[in-house]
Design goal:
The chain has helices spanning 17-40, 60-152, 160-171, 189-198, 208-211; strands spanning 176-177, 186-187, 216-218, 228-233, 236-245, 248-254, 258-263, 271-274. It is α+β, with helices and mostly antiparallel strands. The strands form two sheets. A six-stranded antiparallel sheet has the order 3-8-4-5-6-7. A two-stranded parallel ribbon has the order 1-2.
Amino acid sequence: MSHTAHIPSHRKPRRSASKMALRAGVTGGVLSTLAVAGAAGPAIAAEPATQTIEMPTLTTDLSSQVAQSADATQQAAANYQVQAERDAAFDKAATQAKKDQVAAEKKAEAQRKAEAKAKAEAEAKRQAEAKAEASRSSERTTLQATASSSSDEAPAPASGSVAAVIAFAKAQIGDAYVSGGTGPNSWDCSGLMQAAFKQAGVDLPRVSQDQSATGTQVGLDNLQPGDILYWGGSGSAYHTAVYVGGGKFVGAQNPSTGVVEQPLSYDPPTGAVRVL
């Protein structure tokens, strides 16, 4: 140490380590350049030898790359979000489609059952109608056979009250048919029956429905003169006439024919009642 080192005014300021390192680096670089220049020979001895030390700097390109990287990261995150939303929407749509398919299958099955039931009911109705028609056909055949057999034989003469009823009914043949008519020259079916049976002292109801439910029901294969024939159901008939024997009846049929005598096969009745 210098003998004046302890005096503050004579101390030399210390150089910082960074400045010393920088000077050392510069000095080393200069020396290296001189050495290279000396080795190059006289051809380049006159040119000054220099060396540029490039320090890394944050350039505009680097900033742009960093920004682009950030944008790319953000875009990737957005793409993942969009994909996630698409997947969720697809799953939801698939679930709803499955539910809709199940509902459609149930509806189709219910429709098939309803159609099968309706078809079965229609078939049962058809069979019932066919059976009823077969029964009616059989009754018509029996009735026609009975009427044919009876027409071949002379009808047994009616006597007493039955004869009076038949005689009165036949006496009105040719009279007009008028709805609600009760004589003496125009009749409806039940009006003629009421007047005819009054000749035998029988007070019949006024309308066909009630006349068809009066007295005793008899089979069409067991008819006797004086029986009341009816068309329709018992208690709900829409027409009546009187059986006069020989497979024939007399009645006020309709406005076209008026009061006529016809064979049973002309318009086979539904049933008959006996009051005499």
